């Protein structure tokens, strides 16, 4: 063998070894409803002798993955990660059954969790333990404990469990997810596909991702490998602190996972411990961000705020006289820059309390007092998906400058589709996949109610208004979405003639 061949062989061997060294392991989920009383305890209690205190963190990594000692992170946090096994007897349970021959055999599923306090408190996902009759947690050292449910919050998919207090329980330190940055290195620990205590590494891919509930969701997206069974496990930063709870994966890709920000979880822990459930303030409006395009189209004076799209009937917002196109700029003297600012603030207020809103309407600011009620639990994305099947596009001849066609909404058609009598407009029949309407998120089945605040009661009205728009002009369109049963405001840019 020549020296050149020898060198090539060594280089190839080194490359293969490097790639093998990059491979990491991967994840699994499942579900309860009973509640027990537990004395309130501080989340960040002193872990005591023999455990790593929350304040003892790794030094800040200066650069890429080579400078992050995830081996040390995993060694410190792994012991606090638990396997969560849930079993249910009910025939309606959605889980795997041990045997097809015995209809009374328990349904079982598993996920992950992590201990946050020496008193035996464990965080996991609500969907991991939902409907379970028995929950068993197993620690990394092999000890098993039966867990009881302290509290659940289905809205953000969080559950707090309790196992017997023990001095030797390892504790995971909670960090601050508000300081995360896109591109920052993180790792996930869990039990993917039953492979317990698997560690995977990746980066933060996106912050504030919306998945199921457009108002409450603020998921951390990561490419750290997450699979079924990781649900409820910790997402950990380079300092060894928990910054999220892994909870979902994309069905279209193997490297897109999502975690609940830990600061969102910490905010509800007192309610979970003390009452077993979470209540949030609610005013009953559909909101959108006041984007530059909508600001321009609607000629609104404030350039920041929460734009009201819809007001639900029999809600605090309706009783307070809020309307579509109102812009909420302040609440209780706190400035509101976006719809998420308002949702976060109102959700943090207790039901029954009064909130003072500053509202911009028709060129003037006014004060509105609203008495909050309790936020209802939103329907799940799954149930919405089943209703989507009833909407079928119809081919159209000319889609016009907005890339969409409409037809009159007659009462018989409205009744068949379950559209309320109060909705008057035209129904979208077809949307150009590459047209302005598609970019504005309009879809087949939407009801167009207004364009630039001009009512649309017929297809003739729609054509008259659309034909008066100039190429490149931004138009504000108010539509009704029967899937969410809400009015929505969207900005659409008129296409030039082809």
Characterization of the model:
The chain has ten helices and 27 strands. The chain is elongated. The chain has 498 residues and is an alpha+beta fold. It folds into three domains: 24-278, Thrombin, subunit H (Beta Barrel); 281-374, PDZ domain (Pdz3 Domain); 381-493, Pdz3 Domain (Roll).
Amino-to-carboxy terminus distance: 67 Å
In the CATH hierarchy, the third-tier topology of the largest domain is known as: Thrombin, subunit H
Q: What CATH architecture label of the largest domain applies?
A: Beta Barrel
What is the CATH class name of the largest domain? Answer: Mainly Beta
Quick structural gist:
The protein has helices at about 5-20, 70-75, 260-275, 290-300, 315-320, 340-345, 380-390, 410-415, 435-440, 460-465; strands spanning about 80-90, 95, 105-115, 120-125, 135-140, 145-155, 160, 185-190, 200-210, 220, 235, 240-250, 255-260, 280, 285-290, 305-310, 325-330, 335, 355-360, 365-370, 375, 405-410, 425-430, 445-450, 455, 475-480, 485-495.
Which helices and strands occur, and which strands form pairs?
Layout: H1 3-22, H2 70-77, E1 81-88, E2 96-97, E3 107-115, E4 121-124, E5 134-138, E6 144-153, E7 158-162, E8 185-190, E9 198-209, E10 219-222, E11 234-237, E12 242-249, E13 257-261, H3 262-275, E14 281-282, E15 285-289, H4 292-298, E16 306-311, H5 316-319, E17 327-331, E18 334-335, H6 339-347, E19 354-361, E20 364-371, E21 373-374, H7 381-388, E22 404-408, H8 411-416, E23 426-431, H9 436-439, E24 447-451, E25 454-455, H10 459-467, E26 474-481, E27 486-493
Antiparallel strand pairs: 1-3, 1-5, 2-3, 3-4, 4-7, 5-6, 6-7, 8-9, 8-11, 9-10, 10-13, 11-12, 12-13, 14-21, 15-16, 16-17, 17-18, 17-19, 19-20, 22-23, 23-24, 24-25, 24-26, 26-27
